[in-house]
Amino acid sequence: LIEKGEKLKGELEEEKRENDRLERERIEREGATQELTAAVAAAALENHASTSAALSAPIKSLGKPIKRAKAAVEVDPSLIEKGEKLKADLEEEKGKRETAERLEREKIEREGATDELTAAIAAAESSRDAKALANPIKRAKKAVEVDAALIEKGEKLKGELEEEKKEKDRKEAEAKKAAAEAAKAEAAAAKAAAAAEKAAAASAAAD
Fold first, then answer.
1. How far apart are CA 69 and CA 80, in angstroms?
2. How far is CA 50 from the centre of its chain?
3. Structure confidence by residue, pLDDT tens digits, 42-84
C-alpha cells in the first residue's frame, strides 16, 4: 500500500511537471507570437521610408522577435517565414537606397567640383596666379568621374603659371642684383672722384 502511494505520488508529480512545462511553453509561444506579429505589422509600415537610414530601425526591430519565435515551441512557421521575408526585403531595399543615395552624393560633388575648377581656370587665366588652382584640382581629382580633360587643363595651366612665376622671379632677382651692382659701382666712382678732387686740391695748394 505504501509502495502504491509512493508510485502514485511520483506519477502525480511528474504529471504536474509536464503540465507546468506545457503551460510555460504555451505562455512563451503566445508571447513570441504577439511580439513577432506586432513587429511585422510595424516594420511593414516603414517599407516606403524615404531614406536608407530610416530603414535601419525596422530591420533591427525584427531581429529579436524572429529569434524568440524560433526558440519558442510550435510558433506558426508561416509567421516566422513572413517576418524573415520582410526583414530580407527591407535589407534589400536599404541596400538599393544606399546605392542611390551614394550616387546622388557623388553627382552633387562632381558637379560642384567641376563648377569650382572651371571658375578657377578662368580666374587663373586672367590673373596669371597659379595658387587658386591647387584646391579645385585636388577636389576634382577626389570627386567621382569629373571630366579628365578638365583636370588635365587645370594641371597644365597650373604648371605654365608656375613656370611663368619662376621666370618672373628670376628676372626680378637679376634686375635687383644688377641695380645693386650699378649702385655699388656708382658709389665707388663717386668715392674715387672725390679722392681725385681732394688730391688735386692738395697739389694746387702745395704749388
1. 7
2. 21
3. 998 877 777 888 899 999 999 999 999 999 999 999 999 999 9
